[in-house]
Amino acid sequence: MVTRYGMDERLGHATYEAERHRFLETALSTESHVLSEETTRTIDAAVREIVNAAFERALAILSRYRAALEDGANKLLRQETLDQSELASLQASLPVAASSVLASASAFELAGTPPTRR
């Protein structure tokens, strides 16, 4: 996201990724894409921040709905598989906001703004 789409304020709207080639297609050029050490460090920091924010967000969601997670895990330990109606009953036990996140959110939406660190 950072190198391909320029999704970092510090780096601006620029692409830092070398051109990708299709599978089994010959390379268009043998030149390597060289970046300065400072730019590489900035990219690394930006990627690290995105990954850490997504991790914190996932941890917060799992912590908030731990009871439902454990309920589902226990059901899976007892019977190994759950059908659609059993999944729906697990989802119904969640608050409306959590149910709508599980039902309609993409991975990108789930990685949104991280919770405030304490």
Description:
With 118 residues, the chain is an all-alpha fold. It has one domain (2-18, 32-110). The protein is 58% helix and 0% strand. The protein has helices spanning 2-5, 37-64, 66-79, 84-92, 96-104, 107-110. The radius of gyration is 21 Å and the shape is elongated. Residues 105-118 have low confidence and may be disordered.
Which short descriptors sum up this protein?
118 residues; 6 helices; elongated; disordered C terminus
Give the CA-CA distance, first to last residue: 27 Å
* Class derived from helix and strand content: mainly alpha
| Sheet having the most strands | none
Instruction: Sum up the overall morphology in one term.
Output: elongated
Rg, Cα atoms, Å: 21 Å
Number of helices: 6
Question: How much β-strand is present in the residues?
Answer: under 5%
Helix content: 55-70%
* Low-confidence runs: 105-118
Instruction: State the domain count.
Output: 1
How many E-type strands?
A: 0
From N to C, what is the helix and strand string? HHHHHH
Overall average pLDDT: 75
